[in-house]
Design brief:
By secondary structure, this protein is mainly alpha-helical. It has one domain (3-110). The protein is built from eight helices and no strands. The model has no long low-confidence stretch (mean pLDDT 89).
Length: 111
């Protein structure tokens, strides 16, 4: 694939991935043929900033985990009121990384 297209994708979507994953993504995209470019270009990723805001406001209800697709963990947080608040506080530090990891997994399925 054209490196200019790949660089534009990285610039516009880099915030959705961990910094150590960006170079791997770039290399995989350059090796990819142009037939999958339309699919990759239209992919929607979850914003880590939105995840942390939701976690701060409604983390005890598990909504942050439901948003990123961790339904089981979301149900667990909902039933335990965020692990009596402890789990909710821990997720304030982990939810952005978990969101970026889910985005990376979603992209890997297409690559």
């Amino acid at each position: 694939m054209d490196s200019q297209k790949v660089d534009m994708f990285i610039m516009s979507n880099g915030k959705f991935f961990e910094s150590h994953q960006v170079m791997q993504i770039r290399e995989r995209l350059i090796e990819l043929d142009d037939s999958k470019w339309g699919i990759i270009q239209t992919m929607q990723f979850k914003d880590p900033t939105v995840s942390i805001i939701v976690s701060l406001l409604a983390g005890t209800l598990g909504i942050d985990r439901f948003i990123i697709g961790d339904t089981g963990l979301g149900i667990g947080k909902l039933l335990t009121c965020g692990g009596l608040g402890v789990w909710a506080i821990i997720d304030w530090f982990l939810i952005m990384g978990a969101t970026r990891e889910k985005n990376y997994e979603k992209l890997q399925q297409v690559l």
